[in-house]
Structures are given as structure tokens and as C-alpha cells.
Amino acid sequence: MMQSRTHTCGELRLGDAGKQVKIVGWLENVREVGAELAFAVIRDFYGTTQVVAQSAEMVKELHAINKESTISVKGTVRERSSKNPKLPTGEIEVVPEKIEILGRCRYNELPFQINHSRQADEAVRLKYRYLDLRNPEVKKNIILRCQVVAALRKAMTDHGFLEITTPILTASSPEGARDYLVPARNHPGKFYALPQAPQQFKQLLMTSGFDRYFQIAPCFRDEDARADRSPGEFYQLDMEMAFATQDDVFAVLEDVLPPIFAEYGLYNRASSAPFVRIPYTEAMEKYGSDKPDLRIDLQVQDVTAVLGGCGFEPFADGLVKAVVVSGFQETRKFIDKTLAAVETQSGNKAYWFRLDESGELVGGISKFVAPIREQVVSALGLKAGDFVALSAGKRDAALKTAGVLVKTLGAAVPGHMDKEQYAFCWIVDFPMYEIGDESGELEFCHNPFSMPSGGLDVLLKAEAGEIDPLAITADQYDLVCNGVELSSGAVRNHDPEIMIKAFELVRLGEDDVKAKFPAMYNAFCYGAPPHAGIAPGVDRMVMLLAGEDSIREIIPFPMNKNAQDVMMGAPSEVSEKQLQELHIALVKAEE
């Protein structure tokens, strides 16, 4: 006996015919065939079972129950005369002796059909998420998430990592995004912050003598939603290793992830170790992106020297990048639609021409290219039938547009994308510094706690003007899968002297470092081991495994794009008494 049932709705088979059983679940559907015959479908977490009522009394009883009510059915299993081979329980049905309502659905109309909830408006789905989750197609993503998290935990434990939880209420820290702040009732005017990541805590664990740490860590960032990022909160497989190098981190993830992706993913192929390593600069030049999708065989070529002076005005100033697509047989309508989509995504216009079967340049900007046909054909290695897409402008704009061209054309033109696999790569050697868009001054490019390649020596040379600070790279890396950034990581800067010098280059002194990161700075002064880590996003990982385009499909109770929980009504107003206890006064925003 299991709770109030003998079997689940996905359990009964032909061998159970003749048994007295009791099943419970939601009344999914009732189909009446006259006054004395009706077929009902009962659904629970495990599956569905058909119930057949064969008396006027039982039919009337089923008719009176609203769909999605929870019921108990006690009856006898028998072989179905009309079997359904698509269902595990499709060879049997239950003839009821007693039907009991356990939880009545008090509404005659539902916001959407449960089994078709994915076709409903997203706002309605999120408001009634508890109904949306009854859909087996929606539920399976949450089950997948549970399985993947369990597999990750086992794999990390098998690799000698300890799962250690770190604080949720902590101090505000400048880590790149806005903090969620929590007022401290007993400390008027002061606030906790929800952690953007356990970054400082996991590094402090390394200084405390723990060798290998991990956790499935909740992270909180007040930032806008994207298709691959949930607003408000997300989860990551956070890990850190003491006395470790970049290669040590790579070896762990290259051992942990491929089996999980192969077992649980939509595709059963995943990159094996070692993953391809691509320097950041090379990734930008070859793929127009630091998140390349290696399932696509298209690459970016620089044709500035050949086409910069062809007389086409957009090519006259800046760089010209080309993406050559072989075997191109698409229509002009396809070309126009695709390039319009590229312009929308990149914010920059793209251009094109073709080499037809006779070897002539046709279409797009071909009249500007025709006078230098031989040089262009030679430079790009063109063959009859090749299509050439082009971008132009300043370096960042030209590369960004070329990167969108690679992804868009690679996915749309047959023969250029080996889709059914998980292709991993490491992006390495990121720049340590950049010129800020707003400040116009030197700033950290990514993580300020990354170890600069070359250590203190390279920072001193930059300070002395012997090398350009923009040429300094960091021992920092990204893990990319199918064009999605799963994670950033780094070898950490564990030496206070190197840390101070790295911050001095961006006009922050020792006092600033001590003030902003007091615990970590002081801990490092007591002897810290070299350490390195990474934190692949669990949500993005499961999204890839499930083959979903939106991250909200794999989160049990997601917020909408405006960081609102429309089901619970969050964020919400609070009482004046609560505000007073927290020493908070609301100021009306200016209109």
C-alpha cells in the first residue's frame, strides 16, 4: 500500500488484469458515450490510466465532477478492447466500484488546457504556474533539472569535492551587477546584500585550508532578463580548488560534464576531453564572438586589404569582414529576410554578393566587387555557387555583425551545422583591462580577482610604460557550449602585493581594496594557497540539455521579463509598520 493508493496511474499493465486496485489523481478528461458509458482519464505524477464507467449512476457521478479535480478510484483492472500502444498503460483500464472526490476543482473553465499549456500566453502560464506544471511536457523539464543536479552532486563528490553552503545574507560588494539589498532591522541605516555569487566566500574557504569546494549555489543579481538568463536569481555549480592551475579546473569539468550531457541531453554526443581551447582574440577574429558555436563550420575572414578600396562607401573607413557560405541555393527573399534579421540583432547593416555557376559575380554589391573579381576570388578561395556575406565598420561593430552572420547563416543554410551534439570549448587569455565606454579610462575587463598572466612583473612593466596595459591578459577562461556561455572562471589573484598593483592601474589604492574587500585582503595576508575555480550555470546547462530556447521553461517558478512573480504578486507593497521597524521611509518618485 502506498499512501491512499495501491498503484500509480503509470504503473498498471496487462499482467494486473483482474486485480482490485485503488488509484488517485487529477481528472484529466471525461468522454461520455451515452447515458450508461463514459471513459475518463486519471493523471498523476507518473502517468495516466483510463477508467471506464458502465452504469448510469457512475456516468452521472463522473459528469458532475469538474476536470482537474483530484479523485480516488477503486475498481477492477481489465484488458482494454481498444488498446492504445502510445501509452504505457494503454492495454488496460479500470472499471470503478467507487469514486471519491479528494479535492474539488471549483471552476468550470480553466485558464488553458493543461496538456496544451505551452501554447498559452506566457503571462497566463506564469500566473497559473501550478496548473502549467501539471502538463507532463512542462513537468519533464523540472524532473530533468532534478536528475542533472543529482548527477552533478555525485560527480563532484566522486572527484573529492566537499559541498559547503555559504551565506545568503552578506555584505554589498562591487561585483559588476546591482545588489539586492536587505535592510537590517537591528542596525538602522545598514543593509545586507544577497550574494551575486559566493566568490569571496569560496576563496576564503581556500585560505581556510579546504582543498576542494562546491555547491549548487543560489545567486542574486538585480539585472534585466534575457532568453538565457533569469532576472533576480539563478543557480550555478560553484567550485574552487586549492593549489590548482587552470589545467586542473579544466580536467575536472572535462571529466564531469560530457557524461552528463550525453546521458541527459537531447543529443547523445558531447565533446570529449580535452575541449578545444581558443584564445579570446582568435575567437573574435575567427567567429566574431567569444561564444562560438563550434557545431557551425563557417568562419570570418578579413578582406579589408582587398575590398577596403573597392569604391563601396561603407567599406572605405574601418574593417571589412567576410563569411563565405558554400552550397548556397537560397532565394533572394531568404537573403533579404536573413540580412534584415542580422541587422536587427547586431545593430549594423550586412552586405552580400554571389559567385554564380558560370563564375560571374552577381547580386548585392557585386558591381563594386566585379572590377577586382580575381583578387577577391583568390583571397576568399571562392568556388562557383558560393555566397559571401560582409560586414564593415569599426573593429567591434564589424566583428559583432560578422559573428551574427556566422550563427544565422550557419543555422539556416543546410550542410553547415552539425546540430545534434554538444560542442564544448574553452575561451582563454581574456584581456585583463579595457577602456571603459563611459569613463574613457582604464578599467578591469572582467573579474578583478583574476591573476594577470605574468604576475607582478607584467603589472610593473605596464606601470612603467614599458608595455600597454591593454596587452595584459588574465588567467581567466569561459566555458562555452553550442554558442552559450556556461561559465566564467579564473586562476585567482591570491597575492596581496599583486592585487594592490592590479587595482592601482585602475586608480584604486591599497586603502580602497582594504575597504571594499576587507575579509579577503586580510585572509590573503595570512598566507593563501594558489587557487582557481569556475561556476557553470545550472539553469543554462539544463536549458541546453532540454533543447529549450527560454530559460523560464526549466525553472519551477520563474519570474517574468520584468522580474515580477505574477503568481505570488512579488514584488509587493509592505505595511507602514514593517517599514518603521526597518527604519525605512518611502520617497515618492518624481514624475
UniProtKB/TrEMBL annotation:
<dbReference type="InterPro" id="IPR004115">
    <property type="entry name" value="GAD-like_sf"/>
</dbReference>
<dbReference type="InterPro" id="IPR004524">
    <property type="entry name" value="Asp-tRNA-ligase_1"/>
</dbReference>
<dbReference type="GO" id="GO:0006422">
    <property type="term" value="P:aspartyl-tRNA aminoacylation"/>
</dbReference>
<dbReference type="GO" id="GO:0016740">
    <property type="term" value="F:transferase activity"/>
</dbReference>
<keyword id="KW-0963">Cytoplasm</keyword>
<dbReference type="GO" id="GO:0004815">
    <property type="term" value="F:aspartate-tRNA ligase activity"/>
</dbReference>
<dbReference type="InterPro" id="IPR047090">
    <property type="entry name" value="AspRS_core"/>
</dbReference>
<dbReference type="InterPro" id="IPR012340">
    <property type="entry name" value="NA-bd_OB-fold"/>
</dbReference>
<comment type="similarity">
    <text>Belongs to the class-II aminoacyl-tRNA synthetase family. Type 1 subfamily.</text>
</comment>
<keyword id="KW-0547">Nucleotide-binding</keyword>
<feature type="binding site">
    <location>
        <position position="446"/>
    </location>
    <ligand>
        <name>L-aspartate</name>
    </ligand>
</feature>
<feature type="binding site">
    <location>
        <position position="492"/>
    </location>
    <ligand>
        <name>L-aspartate</name>
    </ligand>
</feature>
<keyword id="KW-0436">Ligase</keyword>
<protein>
    <recommendedName>
        <fullName>Aspartate--tRNA ligase</fullName>
        <ecNumber>6.1.1.12</ecNumber>
    </recommendedName>
</protein>
<dbReference type="Pfam" id="PF02938">
    <property type="entry name" value="GAD"/>
</dbReference>
<dbReference type="GO" id="GO:0005737">
    <property type="term" value="C:cytoplasm"/>
</dbReference>
<dbReference type="InterPro" id="IPR004365">
    <property type="entry name" value="NA-bd_OB_tRNA"/>
</dbReference>
<feature type="binding site">
    <location>
        <position position="485"/>
    </location>
    <ligand>
        <name>ATP</name>
    </ligand>
</feature>
<dbReference type="InterPro" id="IPR047089">
    <property type="entry name" value="Asp-tRNA-ligase_1_N"/>
</dbReference>
<comment type="function">
    <text>Catalyzes the attachment of L-aspartate to tRNA(Asp) in a two-step reaction: L-aspartate is first activated by ATP to form Asp-AMP and then transferred to the acceptor end of tRNA(Asp).</text>
</comment>
<dbReference type="GO" id="GO:0140096">
    <property type="term" value="F:catalytic activity, acting on a protein"/>
</dbReference>
<dbReference type="Pfam" id="PF01336">
    <property type="entry name" value="tRNA_anti-codon"/>
</dbReference>
<dbReference type="InterPro" id="IPR004364">
    <property type="entry name" value="Aa-tRNA-synt_II"/>
</dbReference>
<dbReference type="GO" id="GO:0003676">
    <property type="term" value="F:nucleic acid binding"/>
</dbReference>
<keyword id="KW-0030">Aminoacyl-tRNA synthetase</keyword>
<feature type="domain" description="Aminoacyl-transfer RNA synthetases class-II family profile">
    <location>
        <begin position="148"/>
        <end position="556"/>
    </location>
</feature>
<feature type="binding site">
    <location>
        <position position="175"/>
    </location>
    <ligand>
        <name>L-aspartate</name>
    </ligand>
</feature>
<dbReference type="InterPro" id="IPR002312">
    <property type="entry name" value="Asp/Asn-tRNA-synth_IIb"/>
</dbReference>
<feature type="binding site">
    <location>
        <position position="221"/>
    </location>
    <ligand>
        <name>L-aspartate</name>
    </ligand>
</feature>
<feature type="binding site">
    <location>
        <begin position="221"/>
        <end position="223"/>
    </location>
    <ligand>
        <name>ATP</name>
    </ligand>
</feature>
<dbReference type="GO" id="GO:0005524">
    <property type="term" value="F:ATP binding"/>
</dbReference>
<dbReference type="Pfam" id="PF00152">
    <property type="entry name" value="tRNA-synt_2"/>
</dbReference>
<comment type="subunit">
    <text>Homodimer.</text>
</comment>
<keyword id="KW-0648">Protein biosynthesis</keyword>
<feature type="region of interest" description="Aspartate">
    <location>
        <begin position="199"/>
        <end position="202"/>
    </location>
</feature>
<dbReference type="InterPro" id="IPR029351">
    <property type="entry name" value="GAD_dom"/>
</dbReference>
<keyword id="KW-0067">ATP-binding</keyword>
<dbReference type="InterPro" id="IPR006195">
    <property type="entry name" value="aa-tRNA-synth_II"/>
</dbReference>
<dbReference type="InterPro" id="IPR045864">
    <property type="entry name" value="aa-tRNA-synth_II/BPL/LPL"/>
</dbReference>
<feature type="binding site">
    <location>
        <begin position="537"/>
        <end position="540"/>
    </location>
    <ligand>
        <name>ATP</name>
    </ligand>
</feature>
